[in-house]
Design brief:
The chain is of the alpha/beta class. Helices cover 24% and strands 32% of the residues. Strands 2-3-4-5-7 form a five-stranded mixed barrel.
Amino acid sequence: MIKELQTPLTEEAVRDLQVGDMVYISGYIFCGRDAVLPKVVALFEEGREKELNADMNGAVIFHTAVSPAGVGPTSSNKLEIESSIRPLSENGVKLHLGKGAIKAETVKALDDNNAVYALIPPVTALLGAKTSETECVAFEELGMEALYRLKVDRYPAIIGAAHGRSIYDE
């Protein structure tokens, strides 16, 4: 059975997700990767999160850049990306979308904050067809690696880490 998720995600919706669940994500999501996520984390650490012009409570962050060619996942285990998962989860992000295995301590950080990690296949054309709006919300000078907000309809993904477990441990 495929679970339908609507953003912003509720605590209850995240609690119900299990490793291996297939999901469709609809609503607004954020996109960021190694150039922008450390900047976003720094804004939270400095108490300047209002500068994002984005509410991260119940948010989904897709580890990707946005280009005219579309969007596709980047490796979530890059230092700058993986090290952003705990602080962003502590500040309301509930689902991190990307690809690749993440460390056990990151899986625990997700669990500590009732957040999850989902794998998204590198299917740029499919995702482009499921994206209806794109807006740069912060750090425009980073071009395609800035923080973007997308409106998506039924983005497919698989839950890769939830409640202290990882699909890579199975």
